[in-house]
Specification:
globular; 31% strand; 99 residues; alpha+beta; 4 strands
Length: 99
């Protein structure tokens, strides 16, 4: 069990996430063996170009979607429905034009 320090430690290990591709039966890999952790009292930044899987990772960590493979643990325990009600993030709205 992870030591409690007034917050939740989130650890993800070998996350693999796929979505249906454009053609029938095709699967597109979004995340491939992604691991990391976010500790209480520390700040974590996720950087990457458009389409690199940042939002997909956040959706997995907030328990909005399930990984194809891998594990996500909160203070050493697997996610539960109760935790889903306690976690979340504010999604970004794009106010910039693509050009």
């Amino acid at each position: 069990m992870v030591e409690q320090r007034g917050g939740i430690e989130v650890r993800w290990d070998k996350l693999y996430f796929q979505v249906p591709g454009k053609t029938k039966g095709e699967m597109r890999t979004i995340l491939d063996s992604v691991s990391g952790c976010a500790k209480p009292g520390e700040m974590l930044a996720i950087f990457g170009p458009s389409g690199s899987g940042k939002t997909s990772l956040l959706n997995l960590l907030a328990n909005r979607t399930l990984p194809s493979q891998g594990s996500i643990r909160y203070n050493g325990m697997a996610a539960s429905r109760i935790l889903s009600k306690l976690t979340g993030y504010v999604q970004q709205e794009s106010h910039l034009f693509e050009e």
